[in-house]
Each structure stands twice: as C-alpha cells, then as structure tokens.
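Appendix B. Extra example for self-study. Work through it before the problem class; the solution is given directly after the inputs so you can check yourself.
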Amino acid sequence: MGDIINTIFFEDFLLDHDIYDANERWWDCGIQFLLMPYQIEYQPYINAKFRNGKKFYNGNPMYNALVSNQKRAFKIIQENPKETDRLVITAWVDSFENDDDEQIEELTISMILSNKTNKIAQDWIEKWLVELVDEKVINELIERDINTLQEQIYQEE
Amino acid sequence: MAKKRKKHRGRIQAQGGDNDLESSQSWSQEEPLNKEDGLRLLEELKNQIPEEEANKRKYAFKKVQEFIEEAAENGGVDSSIRNISFLEPGTKDTRVDIEVKSGIAFIILASLILIIFIVWAI
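Solution. Structure tokens for the complete assembly:
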C-alpha cells in the first residue's frame, strides 16, 4: 500500500483527542466545501456519545450528515491505519427509520483516510447526495473503485 | 387504534457478506435494556446464524461486545446513536450493526433498578 500509506492523514487520531477533534473539523470543512456549491442543506443525525456525554473517540462514525428533504444520509467510519488487514476503503447502502418512521437511505463509507481514499469518498458522496444515483448504481461504482484501488495496491507491491 | 409502542426498542443485526445475510435479535420493552441482556442478545444472534457466518464476523462480534461493555460504563447509549456498524476487516460489508430505535440501551443493572425506583417514587 506504498503510495496510500505514505499519504495517510491524521494517522494518530485514535491516540490523541486533539488530533481526533481536528480530524472531525477537517471532515466538516471538506463536506462543506463539497456540498456548498449545490446548496444542499444537511445536519448531523448521529450523536457519537455515550449518555454521560463522553465521546466515542473511535472513528465510528467520524462524520455523518443527513439531507432530510432527500431522505438520504451518509456516515464515515474512519479505520485505524495501523490495522493493515483492512480494505483501505469500502462502502455499502442500508436504511434506517427516522423519528417520523420514514425510511432514510444511508451510505456508510469505512476507510483509512489518505489523499487517495479521500478523493474516492468525496466522489461517492457527491454521486449519492448531488447526482442522487440509486443504490444499484452506487454499488456498481463502489465495486469498480475498490477493484481499481486493489489492483493499484497490488501493482505497487 | 394504533398499537402503543414500547418505550425502549432496538436490534442487533448480522448483515452483509457474500450471502447478503440479514439476521437480527431485537428488544422492545418498557424499561431500558441492560448490559447483560444486550450481551445475551448478541450471543443469541451469534447462535442463530450459521456457524460459518458467525466465524466470518468474529472481530465484529468482539467489537460489539466491547462497545456494549464500554457503553455500560458510561451510562449506556440512547437512540441518538441511530445505527452503529462494526465491519469485519478485509471485507466489503460483512458486519454486525447495533440500532437503537428508541429509549436507552446497555445500562448497568444497578442503574436500571435506580431508574425504576425513581420513576416509581415519583
């Protein structure tokens, strides 16, 4: 995973809460930058805290956003880059019921954050929330991008 | 007349993978789900799915167990966590999810007794 490992962002996010908080803000800025041109309104829908107020601080999820009028959401699970047995990025679509019993379609992206995976994740989020591609299309795209990335990693090794 | 829903509801699901598994253990009750019952549901889910599927989710099951235990030490979780996924490393979407639909889950039994006592006293 040479190139991908070399460009990992916030590598120690699980070891240091300040790094973790900065990592969260980085996602917040990145998503604002991505969605603002399309005037898409979104808000967080997952409170990643225990009932005593303590944050999970485990990257699960690192970031989340719901676009209420689209009934679509996405969340980012940021994985530990030191666990190298993982796929560097993957994703799936599922659904959950909101408080009004409406089905929300949710794209979950699980990733080790690097320059390369960030670009892929942003592309998937754009397709999901801006182009509003359906589940079949996003699944095909995910499959294609994972395979391409795996091939690149294989060739680098 | 619509059936009145229980206050504390949720489920633990084994999902995804090559066989696109969808299997769950749910709770629906008037009192918060305690840690012991959460761990019992997790164990029942493990036993409910084919052994091969359980083996494919060993890490994810362990992570869910750790999450329930950590939650219990921190007052539990409520429905604002929605749906938390624990992915099996090296897979596209083989995972175990926790979904808290309403109310509170994974609290320590002593806390539950205290909550019931306070509600009863009021």
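Self-check: Chain A touches chain B through 28 residues (CB under 8 Å). If your reasoning did not lead you there, revisit section 3.
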